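We keep the chain:
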Amino acid sequence: MASGSEWDEVRRTAQRLEAQVEAKLSQFEERSNASTKGGGGGDLESASLLLDDELDALETGTDSLLRELGRINDKMGRCIEEGGGQRHRLQRHTDVLQDLSQRFRRMTQSHREQRDRADLLGSVKRDIQDYKDVGGAEAAMRERRAVENSLKGIDATIGQAQATQAELQRQRDSLGGIGGRLLGAAHQIPMLGMLVAKIQSKKSRNSNVLGITIGVCVSFLLFYAMT
């Protein structure tokens, strides 16, 4: 059994600790609400990490105060004097401690669940962004290969056209030599001159048709490669 002055001193300590715990819980709730409103990326992620550090410190400090308050309540129990209302006031402090402890457990549990959900959501967002980045790079690579293949096809077609043109030029030169000789003979044989004129007309028409066909093919390939 202790004196009334010791009881009063211990009770004032309990009241001071209760006020400190109440202030810590209010701060914890405020910081917890702020941390759940943060988005993802850049400065917001850094701010969220700072809030988590503050919440961890508040959680540790509040838990320490609650333990100290429990020890003070036990000490008050040993200071109770027979008679008077000390036992009733001790019960009130015990109820306050229980209420503060329950609030603290609910708030810390809620914050952990919110942080786990935020971490999971952030992880999913990062996975989606990584998938988009990889998919975009693969699409660009496929497009590049398609363009390269189209250019190779165009080069091959142009090469074939050039070879055909060279062959036609060779044939033209050969036919030109023959035509010159035939023209020389045509002055002497009128019917032969008419035959040579028809051959030259047909050769010119075939050359024009072949040239137009090659031009259309090259233009189509160029248009396909550009689109």
Residues 143-226 form one domain. The helical segments are 4-36, 42-78, 86-186, 190-226. The chain has a mean pLDDT of 75. The longest helix spans residues 86-186.
